[in-house]
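Schema walk-through. Below, the input block comes first and the output block second. Nothing else is stored per chain. Lengths vary across the set, and this one has 302 residues.
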Amino acid sequence: MNLTSSLSPRKTIRQDSVQLSHRRPVRIHPFANHGDYPLHDHEFYEICLILRGHAEHLSDDGVSPLRRGSVVIMSPGRVHGLRKPTGLNGVNIYYLAPWLLGDPMLLQQRLLALLFLGKTLFPAGTLRTPILFEISSHTLIRLERMMEEITAEYAHPFASLFSVRLLFLRFLHELSREYEIRHGGSGIPFHEEVWAAILLIEQCVQQNRKFNVSDLARQIGCSAGHLHRLFCGATGAGPMEYFQTRRMQHAACLVLDPEFNLTQVAYQVGCADSAHFSRCFRQHMGMTPRDYKRNFQIGECG
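--- output ---
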């Protein structure tokens, strides 16, 4: 894979080993000290949380020490590894970004969205991973409990995806709050007018409304040209390109939902017919809707 890194991975963590799905949109993989972890990348976001012990983290940004309470956030395609582990125990957490973005209120939490979905939202933008920071012992204990609750919810005979979403959002909120504390409340800088535009675009995506850049600029209070320049500078794409990307990411979430067939999904995202929808989806998601659905059915059983 290796879309954004100058390092060369020895392997890619793929869907066949992670097995994300509509029923299992979050996976928690514990790991223990078994020697160095060679350079690798992922098809998905990875949150690496160190529970005990220590090691060194390798990435394009160099070598960084890891210890109990260290957090590493890696976006898809970025390469990293661990070396010199001593008494190391931790967890790798993987999640389906389109599923997470299915929450219509998520982008109201700007720091959370930038930390855990930034490269999905703005693939051509300047946001970089790895993001490394430390959390307190009290927060780490709370996060361990939340992971136990997510695991227990999956095992429940009447497992609820609503509960899984709430638990995982609480988990991400705790991490983003710790990140903000560690950075003096500064969070991740982002242009206010552009984020206001992003929230308005999200309403169009979630409500299947027509989108027009001139109307958006009028709502923000600037010209369409000025908004386009601001938007490109902050995200690496124009407002219309961003809207089309978000529309297909929203479609990806619906494609995985067994309550919708592909014709219904096409209608829900404003495509004239299934053929047009399939072309748009493939352009943005790298495969057809049918193949995307099949790819994530691999994780339905476990």
